[in-house]
Amino acid sequence: MGKLAGKIAIVTGGGSGIGREICKQFAEEECAAVAIFDINLEGAQETLQIIGSGTTKVFAYKVDVADTANVQQAVAQFVEDAGGSPDILVNNVGWDQAFWFLDTQPEFWDKLIAINYKGVLNMCWVVLKLMVAAGRGGRVINVASDAGRLGAAHEAVYSGCKGAVITFTKALAREHSRHNILCNVVSPGATRTAGYDNVKYSRDDPEQFDAKNERQIPLRRIGEPGEVARMITFLATDDASYVQGQIISVSGGLTMVG
Ligand SMILES: NC(=O)c1ccc[n+]([C@@H]2O[C@H](COP(=O)([O-])OP(=O)(O)OC[C@H]3O[C@@H](n4cnc5c(N)ncnc54)[C@H](O)[C@@H]3O)[C@@H](O)[C@H]2O)c1
User: pTM to 2 decimals?
Assistant: First the structure.
């Protein structure tokens, strides 16, 4: 039997990259139902098709996680479609482009904060109420970034948002331990996805970006999205039953915290 048998999960940003791999692994572990919340419905539907029909019922929804009303409506719809409330929430959506902070404008900060931080607040606010009410415990796994631990040049506002996600998750872990809801952070480093390319090609040195990253990473390579998803899947299972309020980097050794 799969390690997630009978569980109901929501994965945001499941239409691409790391999120797609999370959905695939959740299906391999025989989750009962997985909702893909993505602003790109085509991407979400592609993930659904890749997984195909099996033990896991997969549902794709077009959702902007930055929009509170949209999140409330989509979660309610999924609860109806799945026939139960979520046990697992993975906040994986993220977005960035690389600029020097002084070259950015407030409108750009608003967009980054809405997607990378308010989106996490929206999802947690709506889903945690259901988890608490259901009384079955639960898992919240927020995807941050090593930029949020180290601070990344050209990614100052994004680094701040991810740092906020990290501290917010620790606070949630303290507030929800009494409900046996475990809240943890997975912090990827450079990982080969469309999101990585989006950052790479907004820089003025895209052809050197991979090599620069590889020089900084002790394992000397860019990660694969499935390698990050593997840690998220672990945190969703009973194997992680005593892991609470932690930040775990999956970044080839880029961040080593004592
Ligand atoms: N790839 C990397 O190098 C890297 C490094 C550090 C952290 N991360 C983090 O990992 C997570 C996944 O990144 P990825 O590289 O797989 O990204 P990706 O761009 O490949 O996938 C992100 C998905 O989120 C969706 N999305 C974007 N805005 C949305 C919104 N407002 N509402 C709903 N869906 C939205 C996109 O449509 C896309 O399908 C993000 O939180 C990112 O910040 C990635």
Answer: 0.98
Q: Is 60 in the pocket of ligand 1 (CB under 6 A)?
A: no
CA-nearest residue, atom 2 of ligand 1: 191
**Domain span at residue 202?**
8-250
At 134-182, the pLDDT tens digits run 999 999 999 999 999 999 999 999 999 999 999 999 999 999 999 999 9
Domain total of the chain: 1
Residue 151 within a domain: yes
- The residue whose C-alpha atom lies closest to atom 31 belonging to ligand 1 is 64
The domain that holds 70 is classified in CATH as: 3.40.50.720
Please work out whether the CB of residue 95 comes within 6 Å of at least one atom of ligand 1.
Answer: yes
Go through 13-50 and write b for each residue having 16 or more CB atoms within 10 A of its CB, e for each that does not.
bbbbbbbbbbbbbbbbbbbbbbbbbbbeeebbbbbbee
CB 131 within 8 A of CB 79: no
For ligand 1, say whether the CB of 159 is within 6 Å of any of its atoms: no
In a domain, 149, yes or no: yes
> Which residues are annotated as catalytic?
158
Q: What are phi and psi of 65, to 5 degrees?
A: -65, -20
